[in-house]
Design brief:
Six copies of one chain form a homohexamer.
Chain A: H1 29-45, H2 51-61, H3 65-85
Helix pairs in contact in A: 1-3
């Protein structure tokens, strides 16, 4: 993000990274939550495209309560967006 | 989340983790708050699926004021989403 | 939250904790702010149910500017929710 | 907030603290911003009611860039609430 | 913010600080982003009015990735407010 | 941001920095996500205009899980704004 690898800071179309996001519309809140997790991961992939580096970091954050809480916070923001997109899956 | 265990970064359906979320609609703000807590936990379970590891971390975060404040922050974001979903339980 | 004491991660009704939240509707912004503080505390109580532990931590966070700022941040998120619930107490 | 001094965690009306907030409606964005700052301070006063303690902490946070950025973040959340309350002061 | 210099915690009109914000309405997203940056700075000026102190801190935060990310986060919250104020500059 | 290089704190038009943002409207969620990343970077460029400094910092944040999570959080806030601008790309 500061000088994200690969993404030119000029006005061309930045290389699209991570799993594509075809739509924000999901059938259930459960699928909406899984999409929110995917979007959170995508935000990391855009900044650190090297899957080996990312896997190497897992030992740190997956055993650090503050990192786990921070991840849950990012998921909460994306879930708020996805829930609004799906009109909160109201019947 | 960086390289969440189990969740393929490809575009297949990520394994749905943690307690399922059937609906965001609740009868009262009190139940809405409990759902917000559950969603916050779900965000952690998605990243650290090992219940034993999570329990092992409790000693750290449950006695650290900054961790407790950070947890409350995640709950606040999810509660904002659940409250909007329920039209703020207006009569 | 990671393995919140008492709250089963299964899909049963989590034990409702802390002061009950009967409604988000308040008469004035002032009461709305007090409710936002109460909701922030409730988020902590859900994770650390032991009042003695919480009181014991006060010496740390109540004299740490960054903790106090973080608390104010959680209150701000809840106040945003309560203000929207009350249509911003517009006359 | 964890065990906020003075605020009973029971369901009685918490003591209202800090400068009262009569209304979220302001004449201009400038006044709205000043109100957002006041609300941010109020969130601190609710947790640390002792003005002498708060003043004593100023030397720490007012010279720490990360604390100053964190304060600005809380003001931004409250300003978002106040701006919505005033329909963004649209003519 | 905890005991912001100059701002009385009583209910009088707090001294208005930093560059005035005449309006949230801008012609383009680009100008809206610049306004969001200005609002972020204003939140700092309200807490640390001394320009010399603020400049003296630049060496710390402008070379600290986490501070730069935290600044970008505050700008993102203000940009969300300004974008909503301008109905997302939809044609 | 505290004393952002180049940006006068007076009320003149701050120098517009980083890749221009012509519009928030995108064809797909995927392009919306790429725009959210670009806006996150823009928030950094406004504060640290020196591309060499930014690149020099990459080694720190791109290998720090907490920095990567914090970046993803900023992207999530901007994506929430861009998604609302595009009415969640509902068909």
């Amino acid at each position: 993000m500061l000088a994200a690898s690969g993404i030119a800071l000029a006005d061309d179309k930045p290389a699209i990274k991570g799993p594509p996001v075809p739509s924000l519309i999901t059938g259930t809140p459960e699928e909406g939550f899984a999409l929110a997790v995917k979007l959170s991961q995508k935000g990391v992939v855009f900044t650190q495209a090297d899957a080996k580096v990312r896997s190497g970091l897992r030992g740190q954050y997956a055993n650090d309560p503050n990192s786990l809480i921070a991840v849950s916070h990012v998921v909460a923001v994306h879930f708020q967006t996805v829930a609004a997109a799906n009109n909160y899956w109201r019947k």
